[in-house]
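ok so for the tutorial part 2 we go from a plain amino acid sequence to predicted structure tokens. step 1 is just haveing the sequence, like this:
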Amino acid sequence: MVATALRTVKTREAFKAPGPQVNGLEAVREGLWLSDQQDNRTYLVDYNGKVLTSFASPARNASGTSFGGGWVWVSSNVRPSMVFRHDPKTGHCTAALHLPDAERGGVHGLQWRPYELGVEPPKSPVPQGQVHGVHNTVGGAPHAGPGVSGTLWVTRPGTQIIQHIDAETGELLSEIPFPAPRSHGMFWDEKDGTLSVVETNHGHVYKLNPRNGDVLDEWVIEGVEAHAMARSADGRVWIGDAATNIISYVEA
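step 2 — the prediction. this is what the tokens look like for a chain of 252 residues:
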């Protein structure tokens, strides 16, 4: 078999991130959501880097960011590995999810998605009734039930897997292998229903079949240490470099 050279792309510098060390990135209509692993704030900036809003998160070593279902999602890369859900207008944290096998593997990238590709929500548990306290208070349910908030794809670099979980309950829907040791940011391709994930050590981007983890394509980003990654509606792939705190992009 003859080896073929991988496609290599170079980035263009866009702006410096607003916090001390960017590590999570998501592209939306207004601009980019960025999470910082040092100050643990999440910022919304326009595509020129102007800060539109920001909020603090309970996440520590905040390492991934996504937007979906009306919420901003931020991963917390300490033990236990968790994801926090935030109101984008107020920044209020409205939910916290422990990831499956939360004491192992860490968590980096996030990608919110609706239920799709034939995946169905887990069945809701049988209601157990409400708990009444000594002052006749009524305890609320721990969550609104599976399927309510869509799903999250999460990279687990320490175990070289990518997990697909219910975004309301944290229940594991499926997991696929990742072919390299340091998975980080990711984006979803609406055209073909694939997941592209960057590996930070060598800058390789793997286009994966989300059903089984098969590698459908592979290319290399040069000139930056790629941690965070997202793709905007115009096709540009945005990169957050935690080593330099620079946001750059690859042309569509």
